[in-house]
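FAQ: What does the model actually see?

It sees only this:
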Amino acid sequence: MEDQGTKKKRARSRAQLSYQQKYLVVKWIEQREAEGLSLTRSDISKYVEEQFEITVSPAFVTQLRKSSSQIKDYVLVSSEEGRSRKKARKSSVEELNSALSTWLEKKESQRATITEEVIVTKAREFAVGLSLPPRFNFGRSWISNFKKMRGMRSAQLHGEAGSANIEGINKAQQKLPILLSGTDLRDIYNMDETALWYRRLPTSSIMKRKRKGCKLSKERITLSIFASSDGHDVFAQVIGTSKRPRSFGRSFDPDRDLGIQYFSNKSAWMTSVLFNKVMQRFNGRMRHEGRVVWLLLDNCSAHGIPIGAKPCCWMDAFEGFTMSAVKAIFLPPNTTAVLQPLDQGVIQAFKAHYRRQHVRWMIQELDKDHEKSAENLKVDLRSALFWVRDALKEVRGSTTRNCFRKSAVLPPANTAEIRALDERDRAKSSIALKAAVDEMVAAFESLGLGGRESITEMLEEKLTSIDAEDESASGEEIPATVETSGLATRTESSDEGEPEPEPVMTLAEAKTASTKLHSFVLENVLRLAPGAEEQMYGLMKSIQGMVECEGHRQAAIGEFFGAVDDSHK
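And it is asked to produce this:
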């Protein structure tokens, strides 16, 4: 029989060094070699046996020296304290995944770009010295499972806020509210330029069959958009490439007809010369209105000091200039993605409204000629400027105000005023909605289509037929009453019971109801007097716009029509 010493020695020989122990051995080797000593494999094996009571082979020592950099990287990344990692506590695959996850978290905090190739390459480095399964493969299945288990996915990086100057942002958000204190909301403006590819069609669409995309139009104009912090004054000035485009003809004047001043240069970009003209125009308008306003600007190289303006430094922190009616402030570098109100959503909302009009025009043109193709349709610049004007009008005042509030550059008093304005707008929209309904009822009565009772019956009949078609198509049971639509003025009840209260209509239901009522009017257009269709369409648009007011809570539509007398039935 073997004695106890032999068993113990064999047990030790089967043990393996942890990564922390390997790290200590590597550090000891580096220290000795730094002292000018030449170490042999037997010297290193003897040191390991004395320190850890583990016998290692010369081949192990050779592999240890080759992978010394990977060992140090692994231990330092896995834990600042270099936790002991023994084979008994984790499988080699788990150990690899854990170290790789820690490394990825560190790289993300450093804003590194990570790809699957980077992950696989680093995993192969960490795998050196690990006893991975014989058939282990860093293939598609492994990388897919690794990302899934750790909630990782590929995503597009949007905006520029990640590169923002944090120190400049904090300074601006502390000092600008002090500088702007005591100023009315209507007298605080922001101006920013944005490019508009006015002929470019959207790159996404609802389709049954997958189809290939088309070449995108590169015809561009630049817009200088001005917006006041109260949201009541939003306008733009346009820069194009042609001095006078053909579509303008002889009589069209954008400034006179649309209130949009048109400039031109070869590149259609803002330049210092055009910036001077833009600022002179804006200063003249404010002077004509008898106002002195603040204007927030980014530090674009084209934004210089206009002719006749006086350079200044506000609060020893912000450069700028003063004109007779304008006091301009240049925001700190690399802060506009956070501080500039127009970048917080106003420009995005404007472009969404513009694209909506572009798509409507495209559909109308394709309906006129079924042989045309969408990519061959080219809108002229004159029409595009009309869409720019309308899109700016459709940007809600609440959107502009909330973007100013989000940028955190306004004084606390102005921020509180913005909240009060939003509450007032909600109350006004409720009153205006009731007035619009009364106007619609009067229009129905003047056209001989009945009053409130007739409108309610038409809605019930129309929605019942639509809901019946939807229910039959989905195989669901059709409700016995129209109560589920939220438009019934009364519900049937037993002789002894009381009528159930009217359900409260939600925003989505109100919007759907107004759309369906407009469809009913179109179907019965022959019964209406000339011009009635346009009148009803305007009323529907008015109701729909007010119902869509953000945060507005509408009561049941039956309250606007009033109680319907059912005694004659």
